[in-house]
Amino acid sequence: MAGERETQGSTQMATYGYHDNKQSHLNRLRRIEGQVRGLQRMVEDDAYCIDILTQTAAVNKALRSFALSMLDEHLKHCVGHAVAHGGEEADEKVREASEAIARLVRS
Length: 107
What we know:
The protein is mainly α. The chain is about 75% helix and about 5% strand. It has one domain (about 20-105): Methane Monooxygenase Hydroxylase, Chain G, domain 1 (Up-down Bundle), CATH 1.20.58.1000. A hairpin with a 2-residue loop joins strand 1 (about 5-10) and strand 2. Helix 1 (about 20-45) runs antiparallel to helix 2. The radius of gyration is 18 Å and the shape is elongated. The two termini are about 30 Å apart. This is DNA-binding FrmR family transcriptional regulator.
């Protein structure tokens, strides 16, 4: 669970909300990385400005979608767990989530 440490040999690892979908998230980020590399190629190949801007918008949308997915998992798992246990950890997780939402809104 969020913030909790699982012992794995002598190493401790935190398990976060995205853990169950980790491979899916990594695949998604690799697709976004490919889109960014595509943008680089477009500039190298002197592609038309509007085509580059269209691809840039697609990359921004993909990153925004990824961020919202991570936020959703954070709220369900990390914040939900902390709120269920109450106390200072709950206040901290809610504050962190609020700040993350504010950053997303401003971007």
